[in-house]
Write a structure and sequence with these properties.
globular; DUF4194 domain-containing protein; three-stranded antiparallel beta sheet; 11 helices; mainly alpha
């Protein structure tokens, strides 16, 4: 077991994220002793395992008690992976456009092709990951809607989107922006959802002709189901 834990720890540090269907990752999700030992090894160097049962990947991040030691005394960008304020704003917009609809489908046990109206036992299905539930955003549409507000179309197209892709937040394919490995792992749904659905960004999205899912379905339901789905994901 020690060799497998060491190997998984090294892979997480080297790659930053790993898919949930990876053999060693699956073991960490279903074997409590293995997971505890993995978390202990990560904690020894100030890291923690980032595992969201709704996400397709797991990752590692800094434990909160070492944030000051790592980021203290440095500039703003040190704690935002080198992203500027405009780039952080763009990241939040993309999170809202991709992850909120995805979570709505996951909670309803629906795919992008299925409205769920004819499935009597939909809520008994396991959580679905990947392209079946995660949609794409047109790059051209994004630039048209938000280019002016987020630093200009040229800056977004030539610099910001490339940086977000390199960091693992998004993927760029044929003019479309898709969920990257870290978009649903590093950004905490339970912190952001209410602020987006009921906050200023909801007005920004509405002004751009975009809609966000209802608060009732996405806030209360995900709180109730998070622990249940986490258990389910480890079976």
């Amino acid at each position: 077991m020690e060799h497998d834990i060491t190997a998984l720890t090294a892979r997480l540090l080297a790659h930053r994220w790993l898919p949930r269907n990876d053999a060693q990752v699956r073991r960490a999700l279903v074997d409590e002793a293995f997971r505890a030992e993995l978390e202990s090894k990560l904690a020894g160097v100030g890291l923690e395992l980032l595992d969201n049962p709704f996400a397709e990947h797991i990752a590692v991040g800094l434990k909160i008690d070492v944030h000051e030691a790592v980021f203290g005394g440095r500039d703003y960008q040190a704690s935002t992976m080198g992203l500027t304020r405009d780039e952080v704003a763009l990241l939040i917009v993309l999170w809202a456009l991709i992850i909120l609809p995805k979570r709505e489908r996951q909670l309803g046990r629906r795919t992008r092709e299925d409205d769920g109206q004819n499935d009597m036992f939909g809520q008994e299905k396991p959580i679905v990951h990947g392209n079946e539930v995660s949609g794409a955003v047109s790059e051209a549409s994004l630039l048209a809607d938000f280019g002016t507000q987020l630093g200009g179309k040229t800056k977004i197209r030539n610099f910001a989107l490339g940086k977000l892709a390199r960091l693992g937040f998004i993927e760029r394919r044929g003019g479309y922006l898709l969920e990257g490995p870290l978009l649903d792992v590093l950004l905490d749904y339970r912190v952001l959802a209410d602020r987006i659905i009921n906050g200023t960004l909801a007005d920004v999205l509405a002004a751009a002709g975009r809609s966000v899912p209802s608060q009732t379905e996405l806030d209360e339901d995900v709180m109730d189901e998070f622990d249940e789905d986490e258990i389910e994901s480890r079976r």
